[in-house]
Specification:
By secondary structure, this protein is mostly helical. It has a domain at 2-128. It has six helices and no strands. The chain has helices at residues 2-29, 40-52, 76-95, 99-123, 134-148, 160-165. Helix 1 (2-29) packs across helix 4 (99-123) and helix 3 packs antiparallel against helix 4 (99-123).
Length: 191
C-alpha cells in the first residue's frame, strides 16, 4: 500500500510538471498556428479569443455574447487529458506500477480544471476569493502579457515551461493601455 501511494505521489508530481510543458506545447504549436488541415484550435483561440480579448480594457468581458469564447469547448478537456495520459500509461506498463498513471491523471485533470477556472476568472472578474491572493494577480498579469505579446507567456496555470523554454515575460517592453482592476497588476516597464 505504501509503495502504491509512493508511485501515485511520483505520478502526481511528474504530472504537474508535465502538464505545464503540455499546456505550453499545445498553446504555442496548436492554438497559435494551424497544424496542417487541423485549424479548429487555431481558429477558436488565436483568431477568435485573441480578437475578442486583448490586453487593454477588452481583456475583461465586454459583451455577454462573447462569454462563450472564454473557455475551451466542453469536449476538449477529456480529449486533452486522454492524450496527456498516453506517456503515463506507457511508463506504467513498462514499470508495472499503475499508481503512477493514477497520480498523473489526478494532476492532469486538476491542472486542466484549474486552467479553465483561472482563465474564466481572468477574463470575467467578479472579486471572487480566488482573485484576491497575490499569486492569482501574478499569473493574471502573466496572462495579460500573453494577450499583448501572443508569442510569450503560453502558460496560464504554472509558468514553469515559459521559464524553462525562454518565453517568460514579466513586464511589457513598452507602455500600453493595459487592462486595470483589483486583480490586475501593473505590467508596464519599470522605467
Amino acid at each position: 500500500m505504501i509503495f502504491f501511494a509512493l508511485w501515485g505521489l511520483i505520478g502526481l508530481l511528474v504530472g504537474i510538471v508535465f502538464a505545464s510543458f503540455f499546456e505550453w506545447t499545445l498553446h504555442k504549436y496548436v492554438m497559435h498556428r494551424p497544424v496542417g488541415k487541423f485549424r479548429y484550435a487555431f481558429q477558436a483561440h488565436a483568431v477568435v479569443h485573441h480578437q475578442v480579448f486583448k490586453a487593454d480594457h477588452t481583456y475583461h468581458l465586454q459583451k455577454e455574447s462573447d462569454k462563450e469564447t472564454i473557455p475551451m469547448a466542453w469536449w476538449n478537456g477529456p480529449v486533452l487529458i486522454m492524450i496527456g495520459m498516453i506517456p503515463f500509461a506507457i511508463i506504467s506498463w513498462l514499470i508495472g506500477e499503475w499508481a503512477f498513471t493514477a497520480g498523473g491523471l489526478l494532476a492532469f485533470a486538476g491542472y486542466y480544471a484549474t486552467y479553465e477556472y483561472l482563465h474564466w476568472c481572468m477574463h470575467l472578474p467578479k472579486a471572487r476569493r480566488v482573485e484576491k491572493p497575490r499569486l492569482f494577480q501574478r499569473i493574471n498579469g502573466h496572462h495579460l502579457l500573453h494577450h499583448r505579446y501572443m508569442h510569450k507567456n503560453f502558460n496560464v496555470v504554472l509558468p514553469l515551461a515559459d521559464l524553462c523554454l525562454g518565453t517568460l515575460m514579466l513586464r511589457s517592453k513598452t507602455h500600453f493601455a493595459q487592462a486595470t482592476g483589483p486583480a490586475v497588476p501593473n505590467v508596464q516597464p519599470l522605467s
